[in-house]
Amino acid sequence: MPKKRKNRGRGKGGKGKESLVQCEICGALIPRSKAKKVTRRISFVDPQLEKELRKKGAIIPTYTTTRYVCIRCAISLGIVKVRAKEERKKREPLRV
Ligand SMILES: [Zn+2]
User: Fold this and answer.
1) How far is the CA of 65 from the centre of ligand 1 (A)?
2) Tens of pLDDT along 6-44?
3) Among 7, 25, 61, 83, which has the minimal tally of Cβ within 10 Å of its Cβ?
4) What is the 6 CA–ligand 1 centroid distance (Å)?
5) If we measure between CA atoms, which residue out of 70, 58, 80 comes closest to residue 26?
């Protein structure tokens, strides 16, 4: 059977079963290796004010949040994009 992707769209290998995670947007249960992990740094201070405070040497706490997003939601949100056949083989780190 022809394969669309070498890793079948996930990073499991020959591992067998793996734990499920919930998509933060639609709530679907998806295998951990198939989910897209989006990490963001969040600050509670207004970005413009934060920039000024940093200039003056203030230390502002930032928090890191991790979200799991399923492939369908990741494509509709623009986190990952549909790629051409040849481009699909390139392995690039996830941005955003
Ligand atoms: Zn989803």
Assistant:
1) 17
2) 788 888 888 899 999 999 999 999 999 999 999 988 888
3) 61
4) 23
5) 70
Q: What are the backbone angles phi and psi of residue 66, rounded to the nearest 5°? A: -115, 130
Distance 48 CA to ligand 1 centre (A): 32
Residue that has been written with the tokens 């083989």 in this structure: 89
Ligand 1 centroid to Cα of residue 69, in Å, is 6
pLDDT at 93: 67
Taking the C-alpha atoms of residue 40 and residue 27, their distance in angstroms, rounded to an integer, is 19
Domain borders along the chain are 20-81
**d(CA 94, ligand 1 centre) in Å:** 17
What is the 9 CA–ligand 1 centroid distance (Å)? 15
* Assigned superfamily of 20-81: Ribosomal protein S26 (3.30.1740.20)
Residue type, 56: K
- Cβ atoms of residues 71 and 26 within 8 Å: no
Is the pLDDT at 96 greater than 60? The verdict is no
